[in-house]
Design a protein that fits this description.
12% strand; Rossmann fold; five-stranded parallel beta sheet; six-stranded mixed beta sheet; single chain; alpha/beta; Helicase, Ruva Protein, domain 3
């Protein structure tokens, strides 16, 4: 006898002393069942009946394990009835009853045992099974792929890889439903799916794992073992080897984990060659809607409300535009549940799109909290022109591209729009980008701005997309890919693109052409919901030349673009937009906008300032500089208007109980007491 074998204190007649106490108890229970059935011999059918049919068993093979000793299982009446039915169906004595016939009879009468491994019933031929309700809505292509892998000649450890937001557990549930209700490949005929759970108990982790895997090893026919926590199994003492032995022995294993979990599984040499991963990608908003609606029905039932299809659509769109570091459909379901909780608290029975939008905030969807579609595309030019002065052609070009993308006319696998803004400084290129992001996404913080003058070296590509593994800065992510991954609904502004290294331009081709970019982690960053704007000062001298007409300027500036940038770059841009030089009237209008912002800022502090129209013209004249556009206006307003108003506050002339008027006199600007007070 080996030193590690359990010694029986006293050998009993008819049972080998080399067996463990648990095995002895199992055989004695089988013998008792044989006597109860009137049979003269113990056959495998009796042993299997005891192992499967014990209602009170909590350990493997029907043996109750307490960590100290085992006791014989109770013989349930369903077991005896199942054997009698199998004998009657076979027309012969019980010892001749086949194991498969007995299993079929047991499965019709005996509930699945509450053990570490819970076996589901075999797949019915009718295609309908009350034990398998309607499957969760998920990507059918992923389910098909998993089933094909399970049907391969060589079993493997199939791991569905994805974060909790991607719902890998629902994919596994859909696969199990497919195994139970759909026609299957020959390799999976009669397959049984067995849950393998490793609960906490007084036993060591290694013993719990081995006990759980024994339930799978004892199952008859093709088996798919479903692990709820593959890392707990693999990291337990001897667990990886036992799991590998299970797969090598013919059982397919299905599990879920994330990317870090896969890396941990690959560290086990015994599992590395058996591992087959099926990665989940974030579904498109269109594909996510039915998933959110399906899970939303459970959420609605929990909160006692009803969820409409429009609410699911709103949750998908608004959760995506919030830009959280999460994925669909999970973040949309969470948003929908928040809306359900709010509706339940207010006593509202139905959650619609307006309720979801109100939960996010009134400014999440630009154009109003109840508008969850594309906001205000019909008057997009007017809304952009409220802040951008004198650039009607540029505004129209941007609006046309956005309308094409948002209405589904343009290629959905490219960004919403990609533009090359050309013009001298101070003509509104950056201001149009800010206005566009505020109009489309309701928040100027969705602007991702990079100064391409910092990317003039070839190695700067690593800073843009993230350093590769093993290099300094690998853990920080790319300056472009990381914020774009966190907030896919955004405007990417690349200032002075003409200064970027050619390798950087080649890297940007993937965004312009395919709407995606791979970062240093190997993750694909989605840029299809973003707007890419690149600015350049190319052709500024031509634009500032007063002797050239606008059409001539456009032709010559576009020729300069073709000469400077490689054709594979400028040909992928949706539109090259040339900004015109600002006139005096444009500067007056811009001065009016800046001063109005200052007045509103003071009004929030209950300080009333009245500004005469002559002030705007005076400021425009002071800041007139064709080479710098409207930039000198900020300096003129700061030194002339803001300084005078600050002094008025200190002198007490401007206070909550008295206002002032800003006028123009012979010596310049004046701050006078407002006669209306």
């Amino acid at each position: 006898m080996m030193p590690n074998e359990e010694r029986s204190p006293q050998a009993r007649p008819g049972i080998s002393p080399g067996l463990s106490r648990a095995a002895q108890d199992l055989l004695r229970a089988a013998a008792a069942l044989a006597r109860e059935c009137g049979d003269s011999a113990v056959v495998p059918a009796h042993v299997l009946a005891v192992a499967v049919g014990d209602d009170d068993a909590t350990g493997p093979f029907g043996i109750v394990r307490t960590g100290r000793r085992a006791r014989p299982p109770q013989i349930g009446s369903d077991v005896a009835n199942a054997i009698a039915e199998a004998r009657a169906a076979a027309g012969r004595s019980a010892p001749a009853v086949g194991v498969e016939a007995l299993v079929r009879a047991l499965l019709q009468r005996v509930a699945p045992p509450t053990t570490y491994g819970d076996a589901a019933t075999p797949a019915p031929e009718s295609g309908h099974d009350e034990a398998h309700p309607t499957p969760p809505v998920t990507d059918p292509a992923i389910v098909d792929r998993v089933v094909r892998i399970l049907a391969r000649r060589t079993p493997s450890l199939v791991v569905v890889v994805g974060t909790a937001d991607l719902r890998p557990g629902r994919v596994v549930a859909a696969v199990r439903h497919r195994l139970a209700t759909f026609p299957l490949p020959a390799r999976l005929h009669g397959v049984r799916d067995v849950d393998v759970r490793v609960p906490a108990s007084s036993l060591s982790a290694g013993h719990r794992v081995h006990a759980a895997l024994q339930d799978v090893d004892a199952a008859a026919g093709p088996v798919v073992a479903v692990l709820d926590d593959p890392l707990a199994v693999a990291d337990a003492p001897g667990g990886a080897a036992a799991l590998a032995g299970l797969v090598v022995g013919g059982a397919a294993v299905l599990a879920t984990t994330d990317e870090e979990g896969v890396a941990s599984l690959r560290r086990h040499a015994s599992l590395r060659r058996l591992l087959t991963t099926v990665a989940l990608d974030e579904p498109s908003p269109e594909a996510a809607v039915p998933m959110v609606l399906d899970e939303g029905e459970q959420v609605a039932t929990h909160h006692g409300v009803h969820v409409t299809t429009a609410a699911a659509q709103a949750a998908v769109m608004l959760s995506a535009r919030r830009g959280e570091e999460r994925a669909l459909p999970g973040k949309a379901v969470d948003l929908l549940e928040d809306a359900c909780a709010d509706a339940s608290a207010r006593g509202v029975a139905t959650v619609d799109a307006a309720a979801v939008a109100a939960t996010v905030a009134a400014d999440v969807a630009a154009g109003g909290p109840t508008d969850v579609g594309v906001p205000g595309l019909g008057d997009l030019e007017d809304r952009l022109a409220r802040r951008v002065v004198g650039q009607g052609r540029a505004i129209a070009a941007v609006a046309h591209a956005i309308r094409r993308a948002e209405t589904g006319v343009s290629d959905p696998n490219r960004p919403l729009g990609s533009f090359l803004f050309l013009g001298p400084t101070g003509v509104g290129k950056t201001e149009l980008a800010r206005t566009l992001v505020a109009t489309l996404f309701g928040d100027e913080s969705a602007l991702i701005r990079l100064d391409m003058g910092e990317y003039q070296e070839s190695h700067a590509v690593a800073r843009l997309v993230g350093a590769p593994p093993g290099y300094i800065g690998y853990e920080h992510g790319g300056h472009l890919t990381e914020p774009l991954r966190r907030r896919p609904y955004s405007v990417v502004l690349l200032d002075e693109i003409e200064k970027a290294h050619p390798d950087v331009l080649n890297t940007l081709l993937a965004i312009l052409d395919e709407g995606r970019l791979t970062d240093g982690y190997g993750r694909v960053v989605d840029a299809r919901h973003s707007v890419v704007i690149m600015t350049s000062n190319l052709g500024s001298r031509l634009i500032l030349d007063p002797g050239l007409e606008e059409e001539v300027i456009n032709v010559r500036v576009r020729a300069a673009v073709v000469e400077h940038f490689p054709p594979e770059f400028h040909s992928r841009v949706d539109d090259v937009v040339v900004f015109r030089r600002l006139s005096r009237e444009d500067l007056v209008a811009i001065a009016r906008l800046h001063v109005a912002r200052l007045v509103r800022r003071l009004a929030r502090r209950r300080l009333d300032v009245t500004v005469h129209d002559a002030v705007h013209a005076w400021l425009a004249e002071q800041a007139r500089d064709d080479a710098h556009g409207a930039r000198p206006l900020r300096t003129a307003i700061r030194h002339n208007v803001e300084d005078m108003l600050a002094q008025a506050v200190l002198d007490g002339r401007l206070a909550e109980d008295r206002g002032v008027a800003l006028t123009v006199g012979a010596d310049g600007l004046r701050v006078e007491a407002d006669a209306t007070w």
